[in-house]
Design a protein that fits this description.
The protein is built from 13 helices and 18 strands. The protein is of the alpha/beta class and 512 residues long. It has three domains: 9-190, Rossmann fold, CATH 3.40.50.880; 199-385, Rossmann fold; 404-499, 2-Layer Sandwich (GMP Synthetase, Chain A, domain 3), CATH 3.30.300.10. Helix 4 crosses helix 10 and helix 12 (405-424) packs antiparallel against helix 13. Bound molecules: xanthosine-5'-monophosphate.
C-alpha cells in the first residue's frame, strides 16, 4: 500500500491516555505522517521514525504495573516529546523524581514559557490545558525547566542537546492556545520534518501502489454509500478501472434518495462497474413480525451476507476483496495486522473466507477526516463525502417495533424533512449526527375538526468525538418548530413530533 514507507514519520507511543488518536491527527494535520504504537514497542522498531511522542495515561509511574517504555529508547538519539503522564515517564526513567503536585490541576491554566526554548518559539505566555495529579518534582540530570504555572513549577522541561522535551499540559487539545504551534515546533524544528504528508499525493501514490499490487487481477467491493467504502472503491477504480466490481446491496432501509444517489454517482459519473441489488422485499420479508432490536440486527446482517455471496458467486473468480477499513479500526484492533471486520462498522461483517487471495484496504492508514480529503481530491460529490454516519442495519434500528414498508416510508419522509431543514440553517456540517426515529408510540391528535390517532416521530441530534459519548445538540427552537410543522403536515400518519434530549451515556445514539 502507499504509505508511510515513502514518507517521513513520527510515532506516538500510547501509554493509555484518551488522546493518542487526537495527537496523531494533529500531527498529520501538520503534514507529518504519524503512527500509533503501544508503549512497550521494542526501541529497535522505532529507529525509522523522525521523532517520538509519548501520550498521557491514567496511572502513576510508581504504580507496580505502571506502563513504562524501555529506557533504551532514549539512546536512539531520537527527539522525544513527552505529554502529561508521558512527561513523567521521561523524568522517571532518566533519573528525575515525580511527585504529587500538591493541588491537582485540571482545566485551563495560565502558563509562562521560556521563549528561547525551541519548543516554545513564537509561543507567548498563555493558557494551557492541564489534567494531572502528579508532576515532575526533580529534574533529571541535563534538563532544565522551560515552562511553569502557579501550581506546577515544571510545566515543561527540556534537554536541548539530546532533543528531549516534556510538557505536563496537553498541547493536542484545542484549549491549549498555542498547542498547535508547539507541536509544529517539535515536528519541524526539533525533529527536522519537512511536511511531506498531503492527501493529493497520497491519492496518487495509493493509485500507483494499487495498480502494482493488483496488476490484471479482479477486485470485488461491497459499496454501502458510506464515505469509507466510497473512497476505497474510487481509489481502486482509478487504479484498475473495470476490473473492479462493486456490489451495492439496497436493503430498502436507506434514507430517502440515498440508493439513487449512490448509483447515479458511481455508475453514471464515474462509469464504475456497479451491481445494485434491490433486495428490499427480501429483507422486509425476513423482518416481518420481528420487533426485538438485536434480532433485527442479526437478520439484516445475515441476510446481507447471503445476498452478497449470491451476487458475487455469479461473477466468476474474484481475486481480492476491497474494504474501507480505516486507521482507528486498525488501532482499536490492537494488532495493526488483522483484517478488521467489525459487525458494528460494516453491515453484518463480510465473509472472510469466500476464497479471496487477499484484502485490499487502501485507507487503513488514514483517519476519517483524511479519508474525506482524499474523497474530495478524487472528485466524489460532497453529499457522499460529508455523509453522516449511518448504521449498517439502516432505518431498521430507527423504527421501533415492526419494520414494514409503510413505516419505513413514513420514517424516510420525516427524516428527509429534518435533514433538509437542518441544511437550510447551515447546521448540516456542524452536527455530528441527526436523524428521525419512528418511536412506535401512537398518540391522539386533532386535525381539521376531527380526531386523529397516529405515529410519533422523535428527532435526535448529537455531537460526539468518539461515538462512546455524545451530547444532545441544542437545536434552535425555530428550526425544531419548522421541522415539527412540516412533518405533521406533510407526512401522513404522523400526529406528533418530540425532541430527544438525552446524552450518551445513559442513552445510546441510536434508539435500538
Ligand atoms: P450507539 O447507538 O451504539 O451508536 O450509540 C454509536 C454509533 O454507531 C452507529 N451504529 C452503527 N454503525 N453498524 C454501523 O455501521 C451498526 O450496526 C451500528 N449501530 C450503531 C450509530 O449510528 C452511531 O454513529
Amino acid at each position: 500500500m502507499p504509505t508511510p514507507q515513502n514518507h517521513q514519520a513520527v510515532v506516538v507511543l500510547d501509554f493509555g491516555g484518551q488522546y493518542a488518536q487526537l495527537i496523531a491527527r494533529r500531527v498529520r494535520d501538520l503534514k507529518v505522517y504519524c503512527e500509533i504504537k503501544p508503549y512497550h514497542t521494542p526501541p529497535q522498531e522505532l529507529a525509522r521514525y523522525q521523532g517520538v511522542i509519548f501520550t498521557g495515561g491514567p496511572g502513576s509511574v510508581y504504580a507496580p504495573d505502571a506502563p513504562l517504555c524501555s529506557p533504551e529508547l532514549f539512546q536512539l538519539g531520537l527527539p522525544v516529546l513527552g505529554i502529561c503522564y508521558g512527561a513523567q515517564v521521561m523524568a522517571h526513567l532518566l533519573g528525575g523524581k515525580v511527585q504529587s503536585a500538591g493541588a491537582p490541576e485540571f482545566g485551563k491554566t495560565g502558563t509562562s514559557f521560556v521563549s528561547s526554548s525551541p519548543l516554545f518559539s513564537q509561543v507567548p505566555d498563555s493558557v494551557t490545558w492541564m489534567s494531572h495529579n502528579d508532576a515532575v518534582g526533580q529534574l533529571p540530570e541535563g534538563f532544565s525547566a522551560c515552562a511553569s504555572s502557579a501550581g506546577c513549577p515544571v510545566a515543561a522541561m527540556e534537554n536541548r542537546e539530546k532533543k528531549l522535551y516534556a510538557v505536563q499540559f496537553h498541547p493536542e487539545v484545542a484549549h491549549t492556545e498555542y498547542g498547535n504551534q508547539m507541536l509544529k515546533n517539535f515536528l519541524y524544528d526539533v525533529c527536522g520534518c519537512a511536511g511531506d504528508w498531503e492527501m493529493g499525493s497520497f491519492a496518487q501514490e495509493a493509485v500507483e501502489a494499487l495498480r502494482e499490487r493488483i496488476g490484471g487481477k479482479k477486485v470485488l467491493c461491497a459499496l454501502s454509500g458510506g464515505v469509507d467504502s466510497s473512497v476505497a472503491a474510487m481509489l481502486v477504480h482509478r487504479a484498475i478501472g473495470k476490473n473492479l466490481t462493486c456490489i451495492f446491496v439496497d436493503h430498502g432501509l436507506l434514507r430517502k434518495g440515498e440508493g439513487g444517489l449512490v448509483e447515479r454517482v458511481f455508475r453514471q459519473e464515474f462509469d464504475m462497474n456497479i451491481i445494485r441489488v434491490n433486495a428490499a422485499e427480501r429483507f422486509l420479508g425476513k423482518l416481518a413480525g420481528v420487533t426485538e432490536p438485536e434480532r433485527k440486527r442479526k437478520i439484516i446482517g445475515e441476510e446481507f451476507i447471503r445476498v452478497f455471496e449470491e451476487e458475487s458467486s455469479k461473477l466468476g473468480k474474484m481475486d481480492f476483496l476491497c474494504q474501507g477499513t480505516i486507521y482507528p479500526d486498525v488501532v482499536e484492533s490492537g494488532t495493526g495486522q488483522a483484517a478488521v471486520i467489525k459487525s458494528h462498522h460494516n453491515v453484518g461483517g463480510l465473509p472472510e473466507d469466500i476464497g479471496f487471495e487477499g484484502l485490499v484496504e487502501p485507507l487503513r492508514d488514514l483517519f476519517k477526516d483524511e479519508v474525506r480529503r482524499v474523497g474530495i481530491e478524487l472528485g466524489i460529490p460532497e453529499a457522499l463525502v460529508w455523509r453522516q454516519p449511518f448504521p449498517g442495519p439502516g432505518l431498521a434500528v430507527r423504527i421501533i417495533g415492526e419494520v414494514t414498508q409503510e413505516r419505513a416510508a413514513t420514517l424516510q419522509e420525516a427524516d428527509a424533512i429534518f435533514r433538509e431543514e437542518v441544511a437550510k440553517c447551515g447546521l448540516d456540517r456542524e452536527i455530528g449526527q441527526y436523524f428521525a426515529v419512528l418511536t412506535g408510540v401512537k398518540s391522539v391528535g386533532v386535525m381539521g375538526d376531527g380526531r386523529s390517532y397516529g405515529e410519533t416521530i422523535a428527532l435526535r441530534a448529537v455531537n460526539t468525538s468518539d461515538f462512546m459519548t455524545a451530547d444532545w445538540v441544542h437545536l434552535p427552537y425555530e428550526l425544531l418548530g419548522t421541522v415539527s410543522n412540516r412533518i405533521v403536515n406533510e407526512v401522513s400518519g404522523v400526529t406528533r413530533v418530540v425532541y430527544d434530549i438525552t446524552s450518551k451515556p445513559p442513552a445510546t445514539i441510536e434508539w435500538e
